[in-house]
Design a protein that fits this description.
Elements lengths: L2 H9 L6 H13 L4 H14 L3 H12 L15 E5 L7 H11 L4 E5 L9 H6 L10 H10 L2 E5 L6 H11 L7 H14 L4 E8 L8 H17 L3 E8 L7 E2 L1 H12 L5 H17 L6 H13 L2 H12 L18 E6 L4 E6 L1 H11 L15 E4 L6 E2 L4 E7 L5 H11 E4 L9 E5 L1
Parallel strand pairs: 1-4, 2-3, 4-5
Antiparallel strand pairs: 5-13, 6-9, 7-11, 8-10, 8-12, 9-11
Enzyme class: transferase
Pfam families: Glycos_trans_3N, Glycos_transf_3, PYNP_C
Family: Belongs to the thymidine/pyrimidine-nucleoside phosphorylase family.
Length: 434
């Protein structure tokens, strides 16, 4: 079928032939299908969706548009984790060395922050010298030798997705469930993994604000994994307030290291352990989640997880001393506090607003080519359910540039809600799907 006929068929609610889908995406990757026709197809998919067979063909076509890595030289089941994004979500920084320390090879290809959410690559690059742009050969070597490698998407992995994501970003088709799911899964399956744990965030700081939407996305990605003969488990986790207390790249690195020392905030620690335990089960290193968590606790207590992080940092060109001496990480020149307007309890935090305040401060990016400041960010001194007194600091702002400070402090104060009584605590792991 010609591109016009395919677009028309999907626009009218028809089912597309898998071979036609594959040729359409291959032609788009080659440049034979122009952006305006792919834009029309994405909008048709936005309104009409893709059934499981179509979605499997679409994902496989994006996956096979480039190199699919072969990590068979590395023994064992290779397992990765993917998060749909949130504020203060530095889980990958502690999860990867934890899983690797317990014997699970972790090939991890991550992204940068965009919009209100942070990016794993930006956090890693705040460690002096850390390189995320490694060759495929180095990636394979480090997964085998170190048990883990954390890099950015290469030009040869799922190039159709890279091209298509940029187009979706400017055609109002980013928030389309089948296109989100196929984008994530095509990149992850190209890494050479055997299994995947999904962290699907839900709440005010997530892309999926409603539980039913998060559940639908998780089930869609699990379905793609099944179609591709990969084991996939998903945890729906709470993002109705920032995870942990640090928001900002170098600040989040510190909190991630502290987690490997057993000294991080409870919410961040719990979500990290829950996700990593699922990786150990999928990787065949523990028969149950309970036994996996016991292994992880031992890796923290005996220091092997922290040593694994230092090994990863050194292997990727970073300064491992920064894991022991935080003064070697980027430091903001000044701090300012946001204070509580009244006595009471923190009853809620608009997490997306906190993320956007971080962008305004320079910790995040509005555009892909924006330059970020790795030193700046926030320490959340009070979180939901905690008591406050009038005039007491609730957020500490770490800043370099005074110009946005007034606006940032106003944004943060507006993001907080206060009341006379503490709200009931929300579960951190809302649901598990497999």
């Amino acid at each position: 079928m010609r591109p016009y006929e395919l677009i028309k068929a999907k626009r009218d609610g028809g089912k597309l032939d898998p071979d036609a889908i594959r040729e359409f995406i291959a032609a788009y990757t080659r440049g034979d299908v122009p952006d305006y026709q792919m834009s029309a197809m994405c909008m048709a998919v936005f309104f009409k969706g893709l059934d499981p067979v179509e979605l499997g063909a679409w994902t496989r076509a994006m996956l096979e548009s480039g190199e699919v890595l072969d990590l068979s030289e590395t023994p064992g089941l290779k397992v990765d984790k993917h998060s749909t994004g949130g504020v203060g979500d530095k889980v990958s920084l502690s999860l990867a060395p934890l899983a690797a320390a317990c014997g699970v090879p972790v090939p991890m290809i991550s992204g940068r922050g965009l919009g209100h959410t942070g990016g794993t690559l930006d956090k890693l690059e705040s460690i002096p010298g850390f390189k995320v742009n490694l060759s495929v050969a180095d990636y394979r070597r480090l997964v085998k030798q170190v048990g883990c490698c954390l890099i950015g998407q290469t030009a040869t992995l799922a190039p159709a997705d890279k091209k298509l994501y940029a187009l979706r970003d400017v055609t109002a088709t980013v928030d389309c469930l089948p296109l989100i799911a196929s984008s994530i899964m095509s990149k992850k399956l190209a890494e050479g993994i055997d299994a995947l744990v999904l962290d699907v965030k839900v709440g005010s700081g997530a892309f999926m604000k409603k539980l039913e939407d998060a559940r639908a996305l998780a089930r869609t990605m699990i379905g793609i994994g099944t179609e591709m003969k990969r084991k996939v488990t998903a945890l729906l986790t709470d993002m109705d307030q920032p995870l942990g207390r640090a928001v900002g790249n170098a600040l989040e690195v510190v909190e991630a290291v502290e987690m490997l020392r057993g000294k991080a905030p409870d919410d961040y620690t719990e979500v990290t352990l829950a996700l990593t335990a699922e990786m150990l089960v999928l990787g065949g290193k523990a028969p149950t989640v309970k036994e996996a968590r016991e292994q992880l606790q031992r890796a923290v207590e005996d220091g092997s997880a922290l040593r694994k992080l230092q090994e990863i940092v050194q292997a990727q060109g970073g300064d491992p001393r920064a894991i022991e001496d935080y003064s070697l990480l980027p430091q903001a020149r000044a701090k300012a506090d946001v204070v509580a307007p009244s006595d009471g309890f923190v009853t809620g935090i608009d997490t997306e607003a906190v993320g956007l305040a971080a962008v305004a401060l320079g910790a995040g990016r509005e555009r892909v080519d924006s330059v970020i400041d790795p030193a700046v960010g926030f320490t959340l001194l009070r979180k939901v359910g905690e008591p406050v007194k009038k005039g007491e600091p609730i957020v500490r702002v770490h800043y370099n540039d005074e110009k946005p400070l007034k606006d940032v402090k106003e944004r943060l104060l507006k993001a907080y809600r206060f009341g006379a009584t503490a709200p009931a605590p929300r579960p951190l792991v809302v649901e598990r799907l497999e």
